[in-house]
Design a protein that fits this description.
By secondary structure, the chain is α/β, with parallel strands linked by helices. About 40% of the residues lie in helices and about 15% in strands. An eight-stranded parallel β-sheet has the order 1-2-3-4-5-6-7-8. The longest helix is centred in the middle third of the chain and has 17 residues. The radius of gyration is 17 Å and the shape is globular.
């Protein structure tokens, strides 16, 4: 069994799957995917994300505000802790830093938001889901300053180099590979995938974005996490079942589900 460790089920187009959440999940189940972490990116849609987790035992969820979200409720530590204490909420995030379209020296609000999420994760004892883009040094610095090793977490949709992966794993985080791993231009990332210890890797879709080859450019959905796992197995020189078993075991261990 595979687990899609990062998807946005509320954003996936359900029309091709009979218009329902169960249709999306059942299509994934046909590809051997049996668990889904439905990730929250703003508080305005938390109830929708949470309701999906309550509706189907195959789904868990998180609470958080994405670093590029600029409108809506700003997450305080207290608010994150209240929402993060609810049933089926197993993680804090998606949080982190994203300087791709802004100058880092103007992003104090992003850095404070990131700190709030880390503090909530530490207080609740729940793992953190981290997004980083064009901000690796600040991301690692703040994780260390805030003692994120106390909550651990996931470096989601990892697309950095080995040094960044190594420094992140030193803080107790695991590396999650998305469809980017299948892209022709991602040889550096495949080298990371070869070197990551077997107990520090996960797979995800980040659906509805970043569909893997051969579906690149099309809407993504959780069933396609199988293609990510197959590429990870190929890169590591092991069989698919080995990767499926290990990444599922890693997910359960990180979130204390066993």
């Amino acid at each position: 069994m595979l687990i899609d460790s990062h998807c946005h089920l509320d954003k996936v187009d359900a029309a091709p799957f009979g218009g329902s959440l169960s249709g999306i999940l059942d299509a994934a189940a046909e590809q051997g995917v049996g668990g889904f972490l439905n990730v929250c990116i703003d508080l305005e849609h938390f109830d929708t994300v949470h309701d999906m987790a309550l509706a189907d035992e195959r789904v868990w969820c998180s609470v958080g505000v994405h670093p590029t979200t600029t409108e809506g409720e700003e997450p305080t530590v207290e608010r994150l802790c209240v929402l993060g204490s609810q049933e089926r909420v197993i993680a804090i995030g998606e949080t982190g830093l994203d300087y791709y379209r802004i100058e880092g020296d103007t992003a104090d609000w992003q850095r404070q938001r990131f700190r709030n999420h880390i503090r909530a994760a530490v207080e609740l004892g729940k793992p953190l889901i981290v997004h980083t883009r064009s901000a690796r040094e600040d991301t690692l610095r703040i994780l260390k300053e805030e003692g994120a090793h106390r909550c651990r977490g996931i470096m989601h949709c990892f697309a950095e180099d080995w040094e960044t992966a190594s420094r992140t794993m030193d803080l107790g985080f695991v590396i999650s590979f998305s469809g980017i791993l299948t892209f022709k231009s991602a040889e550096e990332l495949r080298e990371v995938a070869r070197r990551v210890p077997e107990d520090a890797m996960l797979v995800e879709t980040d659906s509805p974005w970043l569909a893997p080859v051969p579906f690149r450019g099309k809407p993504n959905h959780p069933a396609l996490v199988r293609h990510v796992a197959e590429k990870l197995a190929e890169v590591r020189g092991v069989d698919f079942d080995t990767v499926a078993l290990q990444t599922t075991r890693n997910f359960h261990h990180l979130f204390s589900l066993v």
